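Q: My labmate handed me this sequence with no annotations at all. I'd like to see what the chain might look like in three dimensions before we decide whether it's worth expressing. Could you predict it?
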Amino acid sequence: MQDSRILSTFGERKTPPQPRQAPPVLVFDACQVGVILRAVLYVEAVIGVGLMYLTADMAEWLARVALVTGGALPATLLWLVLACALKRLLARLNWPLQAAAGVTLGALAGLYACGTLALLGFAAAPPWLASASTGALLAAGLMAGLLWRVRGRQPAATAARLAELQARIRPHFLFNTLNTAIALVREEPAKAELVLEDLSDLFRHALAERGDSATVGQEIELARRYLEIEQLRFGDRLRVEWALDERVHGARLPPLILQPLVENAVKHGVEPSPTGAQLRVSTQRRGQRALIKVTNTVPAGQGRAGFGIAQANVRDRLRLLHDLEADFRTALVDDVYQARIEVPLPGRGA
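A: Here is what I predict for the chain of 350 residues:
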């Protein structure tokens, strides 16, 4: 099944669970685009408000903001680059030492900004102490925001994961799978045994503790297990196609985010149709990004009612893990529905 029509609407082995130790508080998680944008806007807002006390009119204020930005913006980006580059090293330190390191880097960034303006001839008597103090205070504010973000992210991700387990691995799926096995026990006992083995593997994989993220490869494996069970249930009515690019299978996703999309494709595509449906799961590398698509046919005129909560759940969990670098979209075109996830590939400062 080709999904080019859907794409046009967008504009464009199992591993054993490892014991987890409580990770240190990682304050310097400043490698994401959303964090960088917010940090720059925060510094510019503080500068703009501060310069209001020193100017008499809008023209003078704009001129001063432009001048100070010439030193502050490179200094802010330097702080973010250093925070990103050193985050693994600094993560070994406890929170007070991380805070001290961040404030020190902020003071050095302030001195850098002052020195830049002095070299350009915009400061006859460079305010070194004031610049270092300002840089330290701004860095403290940035770290407070980053600390709030990382501490708020873990409980939210855990709650979202538990909610997803309860909402998506539904009792009716367990009952249907067991009924499939019971129906096969007498006539095809080998298939019944296979269903029960797949069910056991599926739940073992789904309930394994893997932290706040999983790989695309792990999510694909979980989807395979689920579809193998449903294949025995629906037979020829479920026609599955895989188009996988293994280069993207190291990208990170929230755990149990692909299986609900596949389950909904079966529920809305196969179950209501006497002739069944086609389902296509594909992965693709596009530059430094990974695309994961679940495409399925639906009965004519059915639409996609009842999927809004799941969409919001997927979108929120992706945003928790990847912030602005993740994208989730859906479209229904000519009775072909597609859910598309786009996330960054690893190795970009992660």
